[in-house]
TrEMBL record:
Organism: Elaeis guineensis var. tenera
Name of the protein in its database record: WRKY transcription factor 71
PANTHER family: WRKY TRANSCRIPTION FACTOR 71, WRKY TRANSCRIPTION FACTOR PROTEIN 1-RELATED
Regions of compositional bias (Basic residues) in chain numbering: 171-185
SUPFAM superfamilies, A to Z: WRKY DNA-binding domain
Origin: domain of life: Eukaryota
Chain segments carrying region Disordered: 106-191
InterPro entries per record: WRKY_dom, WRKY_dom_sf, WRKY_plant
GO CC annotation terms, alphabetical: nucleus
Primary residence: nucleus
Residue ranges, compositional bias (Basic and acidic residues): 140-170
Positions of the WRKY domain: 194-259
Amino acid sequence: MSRENRELYHHDHHFLRDRNDLPFHDDLSPFFSQRPGTGASQELQGFFHLQAASPYMNITEYLHGSSDYGLLSKGFNTSCSSPEMFGPRDGGLVKRELVVDTSIGTNLNVSTGGGDGGTTPLTPNSSVSSSSSEAAGEEDSGRCKKDQLKVEEEEKQQLKGSEEGGDKSKKVSKPRKKAEKRQRQPRFAFMTKSEVDHLEDGYRWRKYGQKAVKNSPYPRSYYRCTTQKCSVKKRVERSYQDPTIVITTYEGQHTHQSPATIRGSTHILAPPPTMPMSFRQDFLMHQMPQLSASSQQGEANPSMYLPTLPPLQQPQFPDYGLLQDIVPSFIHNKQP
DNA sequence: CGCGTTTGACCCGCGC
DNA sequence: GCGCGGGTCAAACGCG
């Protein structure tokens, strides 16, 4: 590790320890903190509050303890924090905060054991918006009809238009396909301390858009998985409050293995089968950016990241032992 | 030539 | 109804 990196490491440490104003974007903050009755000014505190107040609600427990998506969803909704992960990558330094949002999506609320998948209020400390999943469902069903009608209408108009020979706009010569309603997928957000915007996660992404973010000098980039029939998307934006923080939001589940995984790194970190595929892969890829990046280049070298962990936290896996080890350590750091 | 990025325009939902 | 902002499309462009 270079001297520069070492300095960054210390900086990062301070960041975690001292900053109580973790930066979130307006649109992301609701994912992380949805406590009713809290003002906007408390959005940021909300997330931190959760980290501190829910020491036993970490992703590892859900990986271990839940055999159904409902519980997993609950846990995700509660917000999870990942360990600090340091290591040189792409010439930059990467540290990660893991935050999971499934409040928008409905896919995770698959038949929960207790039937409380999206409706059971959690602890007062949790940030769960239990109604959002339901609402999303209703919304979806409502919108579906609407959209279908719209599509039919558009088709009619298109026919009309072609008959009349009118092309009002050059740009939109082809009407967009809207047969399929835009469905909200489960989202999964990471906060990453990184110098690079687009982080390697083992998948291939194609950028399909970029938008300026309101109240932020940094644009938001939209990526889509390049694999055919895989509709996973991700948004990448830089926090306007702390430009060193990159917020990556995944949406959807990969219908395939990651290229990096295929190349033989799965035996090192086999995620639990209970975790949705994309979450498992993305999560692990994000926990092991160095690994995924290096394995992608055919030079897997776990020692690249192992030394960054204290001896006791060095993974004893197979399996996801690393997560198990790291998450509590991170949380312990948060304990007074 | 294929693949990925850029970028302006369009779509759509939502709040007022 | 209108405006705003987030999300997406697709043509143009760049690069290897």
